[in-house]
Amino acid sequence: MFAALALWAATPFARAEAFQIVGFGDSLMAGYQLETGAGFPEQLERALRERGYEVAVTNAGVSGDTTSGGLSRLDWSVPDGTDLVILELGANDMLRGIMPEATEQNLEKMIQRLKERNIGILLVGMYAAPNLGEDYAARFNAIYPRLAEKHGLPFVPFFLEGVAAEPELQLADGMHPNAKGVERMVETVLPVIEPLVARGGKTM
């Protein structure tokens, strides 16, 4: 009897391992000024678990991070065994007026590194602030759809969809989401990420 139990425990279907997701981004991912459990990775994990998925979503967001900073920490922030990375960076590049071409190059390198490690990627985009001018906005806003098309990545065009310019969903700074704003962001991402989790995080 004990031998049979040991054999059952050793089979690959005995225990389902959690699907490992890393939320890799800036303050929007890190949960700036939010209580524990109210950030995007935590709310996303709960939402996916409520839908029956065995997942673990790790928060690898760093407030103030740029694509340059993200590139420098990517390898150690995304451990082996990660199934899917939610790549959300570039907003701070935009706020600092960094050239969109440099932002795109950094994101490209991160995508290539993750692909080399056979890690799935969900690319999350951002729009430029209107006060930066039409030329900058056109160059910046084109980054994410271009990379998504080039690499065949699932893509969320705007992380703050339905939250930006909605004071009741933002902190007092008018830039970061409050807990209810994060809930709205999860609702935006769920239709894109759920199929990835369901099929093992593989991108086409």
From TrEMBL:
InterPro entries: Ester_Hydrolysis_Enzymes (IPR051532), SGNH_hydro (IPR013830), SGNH_hydro_sf (IPR036514)
Organism the protein comes from: Chelativorans composti
UniProt domain SGNH hydrolase-type esterase: residue ranges: 24-183
Protein name: Arylesterase
Superkingdom in the source lineage: Bacteria
